[in-house]
């Protein structure tokens, strides 16, 4: 396996993910940190293999926490088999099933009740497309200040067209 120095963007593109995703997976411990730091940061094929394996496992409904545990127990060769799709294990039932509901405690063991926060009614909004790639959400009945601001934005957008 070539472990040559690749840039973040190259590794992300090779694995079909964003550079942000690569950084996130490193932060979560799913990927090893790159060699070096700063402008000479280098990623290797190991990063691409693990990124592809993560994608395969997510397609098989593995949560990220369980993927980290799986990687800790696998060799690089086994991770390569997952990445190429030849051996994608099914998540265990304990991983795939939702967490059990908490067991109720007797009222004498409960902590004192705090006042309930009153839920706000759902906010009804309208989506307004100001430009091809600019959409804002404003209340259905905006305040006078918000309505004036929205009108000023519409005027600016209309001038730019």
Task: Describe the structure concisely for a colleague.
The protein has seven helices and two strands; from the N terminus they run ααααααββα. The chain is mainly alpha-helical. It has a two-stranded antiparallel ribbon with strand order 1-2.
So how many helices? Answer: 7
What's the level 1 CATH class of the largest domain?
Mainly Alpha
Distance between the termini: 52 Å
The outline comes out as elongated
Number of strands: 2
Look at the helices and sheets and give the structural class: mainly alpha
Q: Mean pLDDT, as a whole number?
A: 78
Q: What would your notes on this structure say?
A:
This protein is mainly alpha-helical. The chain has two domains: 8-96, Multidrug-efflux Transporter Regulator, Chain: A, Domain 2, CATH 1.10.1660; 125-160. Helices cover 44% and strands 8% of the residues. The protein is built from seven helices and two strands. The protein has helices at 8-15, 19-28, 45-59, 64-72, 76-83, 93-96, 144-160; strands at residues 125-131, 134-139. It has a two-stranded antiparallel sheet with strand order 1-2. A hairpin with a 2-residue loop joins strand 1 (125-131) and strand 2 (134-139). Helix 3 (45-59) packs across helix 5. The chain is elongated. The N and C termini lie far apart (52 Å).
What are the key terms here?
single chain, 161 residues, mainly alpha, Multidrug-efflux Transporter Regulator, Chain: A, Domain 2, two-stranded antiparallel sheet, 7 helices, elongated
Write the layout of secondary structure elements.
Elements: H1 8-15, H2 19-28, H3 45-59, H4 64-72, H5 76-83, H6 93-96, E1 125-131, E2 134-139, H7 144-160
Antiparallel strand pairs: 1-2
Helix pairs in contact: 1-3, 3-5
């Amino acid at each position: 396996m070539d472990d040559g120095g690749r840039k973040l963007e190259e590794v992300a593109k090779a694995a079909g993910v964003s550079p942000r995703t690569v950084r996130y997976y490193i932060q979560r411990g799913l990927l090893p940190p790159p060699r070096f730091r700063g402008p000479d940061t280098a990623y290797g094929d190991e990063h691409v293999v693990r990124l592809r394996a993560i994608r395969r496992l997510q397609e098989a409904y593995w949560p990220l926490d369980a993927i980290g545990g799986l990687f800790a127990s696998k060799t690089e060769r086994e991770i390569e088999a997952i990445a190429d799709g030849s051996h994608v294990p099914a998540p265990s039932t304990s991983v795939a099933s939702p967490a059990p509901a908490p067991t109720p405690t007797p009222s004498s063991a409960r902590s004192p009740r705090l006042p309930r926060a009153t839920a706000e009614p759902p906010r009804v909004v309208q989506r307004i497309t100001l430009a091809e790639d600019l959409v804002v959400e404003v209340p259905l009945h905006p305040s006078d200040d918000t309505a004036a601001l929205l009108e000023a934005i519409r005027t600016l957008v209309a001038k730019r067209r």
